[in-house]
């Protein structure tokens, strides 16, 4: 008998029902089966992907063909990741789709009005287009004071969106840049931008190195800066699979959570002291000779000799300029030979080789000092360090999982750099069960970064043009890395091909130089000056006239949310695209706000929910998965693609009729993405993959103009190919939509690891484990034969797609880095080549023991905003977090009754000791206050938080979820926790520091 998994799950569910009610004397199994059959009878069944976190769980969507509405949404049992299971949020998508108070008509708030008005789509889009054109034309900057081409406007900004598909997001960024916007940012900035900045420096790409299923292959799992069991519940099934196979789980976190409850080892840590912990671990690994010597010597830059001018003293690296509060990084270079190749000492003994500098740097991080700063007892430190360091052997693998607890700090990039360095020392990169794995919290936040709804990249991580790069040739010279080492593949030497193909994807008609000129340019300043915190700082000073908010809620999700809400009041207009009302679209009638004093015109445009449209999303493991349209748009809602194309038609018509500033990119932008008068996601997906614009021969294969390119190796630098995002090339070829594949077929190597290479598509090149050539020796033999990722057999690689297809030993394995080796020494970060402990911008300490420099000297901060440092008015450390049943700022989940019933209101957690000290009992109302604002919530008194001894004093932690807000539709709801958090950020990426700041707590 052959039993399909779906049938098995149905049978198992029926059996469970019978077991539950069998003791009552009757059998409900037939009734239950009949009820289920009635519900789904005569429905059309399609597939989709969950719209919540980036695990990327598969869905089955049952739709009534007569009404076009869904009648049931459940987990897809065929999907390799979730295998039919869903978390509470995924299980509630049906209710969110069909039974929640979605906005289904266009709403308009006139200046100084206290109410919404319903408007027709054409009226709203025409008015938005008029306002955009008027502001753009009045503010357009064709050249700088130096005469450099700029072709931009700084009076318009856009924030969001990880809530839309790749194709829609790519179209949005293309339109924004055609308008000349340079202030473009999204969810990616405030969650995982530090991941990109760190992992790209460590390994060459800013993405999760492995994937969800691969977690099962680990021997030890360190979860630090994440509560995976609650915030990525389906990911945790692969953690438990590893534990069933004998793996050890370590959880290091300021709180004891559901993840902690499942862990073999749990340790509390003071929030904001991760680098002290990691620095001590590196010292422990090095002193005890626990690193993988061959791996480190051959595959990392540990042997590289650094310039004589490099130094570190008193908390500062060489090149510090106090006037500019920035480093001159010239002394951070390698010493090179007469051919320009970095000098090396394979013995790792030279006093200026990276290995010796690393040992010297972390010599200060002794266990006593680390314990004193982090609050972790010494015996617990040694237990955690020794357990994880035991994976530094060829036949072992350790993985590190993290999320916002590492990212959202003024040292967020360096936190994650430290994770990468530890994994390089232990040889855990490129191997099955290894890696540094970022747990992303939005269904397409990875895709949003890939297609560049951010200020610092073009799609595929191409650099944003600077004002000083006045021509395409100057751009390519400045952006393309050069390597003189013949062993380095230096894949970014292909930069000209990818840039030319991108230019042709947006502007196919003009020559490459003209297309480049049409791109807006940023000033030669810190890129973070264009990022999230800087946008709202500039907005608060009246720097913008108009703002797009696309599928996001900055009034709840932004650090220092009170500042953000006040900044909205300075705008002439705001366009908010969303499924629901939220605190951002309704800022003009929020607490303490008089609508009659608010001039901002607000347009609330109703968007389709995910199951009502099609397109691809990228999960944390880089899987591009195609979501099919299963239901009709509800009411007057439209897909984001249709909204964009409709708005662009109005903008283009205005410019065609009236002329205006710099019309070339307006008229020249390629927007032929409709079929039958409606947005066609497949057309955009094909453009992202890439197309031959002329007949071409690649190797021995010939292609005609109009054919899809087979992969990025076929792209050219002469304008004969177009490709919207080179890393997606291969995802939609002449063979069809690779992202929609649902084939579970695997060979023996792939099956053993759970690679599923024929399910969906993974960028780049369908590779499932990045840097996998580091899992083999120079003869192509797997260093762990029991868990091979790839192997050289009969003159070819088998297993996963190799990271670089050359023969064994021909090139270094980290092909995206110019020197080909993993970076223990990372000279491209603005705050230092080695992670160094600095206190959070707000902390209970005015001094710290590692150096005289208290906080990151290069951090993004605004001098006029006060900070609480060892301030008796704000004596407690506060951290923000999420809960399982709510999501992000709560825009969707607070409107979903099933989830609201599970987690109805805002709360804070405090230890039993602190509660006694403050006279607060469980269930009391408590007010949290910072220098920025106050929030009143319900107090939960718990042992999940514990006081810590830090530098000889007792330090208390308070925790508060940030997913609630004043628009919450239930009694007792609280406003956003982000009214408390500071607008300070990491200097590399600008990500806000919302995981460690100071508050007071009192009984309300």
Provide a descriptive summary of the structure in words:
- The chain has 1004 residues and is of the alpha/beta class.
- It is built from 31 helices and 43 strands.
- Strands 4, 5, 6, 7, 8, 20, 21 and 22 form an eight-stranded mixed β-sheet that branches. A six-stranded mixed β-barrel has the order 36-42-37-39-38-43. It has a five-stranded parallel β-sheet with strand order 11-10-9-16-17.
- A hairpin with a 2-residue loop joins strand 40 and strand 41.
- The radius of gyration is 27 Å and the shape is globular.
- About 2% of the residues have low confidence.
Which secondary-structure class do the elements indicate?
Answer: alpha/beta
Q: Low-confidence segments, ≥5 residues, pLDDT <50?
A: 8-24
**Percentage of helical residues?**
25-40%
Q: What is the radius of gyration?
A: 27 Å
| Count of helix runs | 31
Mean pLDDT, nearest integer? 95
How many strands in all?
Answer: 43
Task: Chart the SSEs and their pairings.
Elements: H1 5-21, H2 29-40, E1 44-49, E2 58-63, E3 70-75, H3 88-91, H4 93-98, E4 106-109, E5 117-119, H5 121-139, E6 140-143, E7 149-159, H6 166-179, E8 181-185, H7 187-191, H8 193-203, E9 220-224, H9 228-231, H10 236-244, E10 248-252, H11 258-262, E11 265-267, H12 274-287, H13 293-299, E12 312-313, E13 316-317, E14 320-321, E15 326-327, H14 354-361, H15 367-374, H16 378-389, E16 398-402, H17 404-407, H18 412-426, E17 436-438, H19 445-450, E18 457-458, E19 462-463, H20 472-479, H21 495-506, H22 512-518, H23 532-540, E20 546-550, H24 554-557, H25 561-568, E21 573-578, E22 601-606, E23 615-618, E24 623-627, H26 640-658, H27 664-668, E25 674-675, E26 678-679, H28 681-689, E27 691-692, E28 696-698, E29 701-703, E30 721-722, E31 732-733, E32 736-737, H29 748-753, E33 761-762, E34 790-793, E35 796-799, E36 876-881, H30 897-902, E37 907-911, H31 912-918, E38 925-929, E39 934-942, E40 948-950, E41 953-955, E42 957-961, E43 997-1003
Parallel strand pairs: 7-8, 7-20, 9-10, 9-16, 10-11, 16-17, 20-21, 21-22, 36-42, 37-39
Antiparallel strand pairs: 1-2, 2-3, 4-5, 4-22, 6-7, 12-13, 14-15, 18-19, 23-24, 24-33, 25-26, 27-30, 28-29, 31-32, 34-35, 36-43, 37-42, 38-39, 38-43, 40-41
Helix pairs in contact: 1-2, 5-26, 6-26, 6-28, 8-18, 12-15, 12-16, 12-18, 23-25
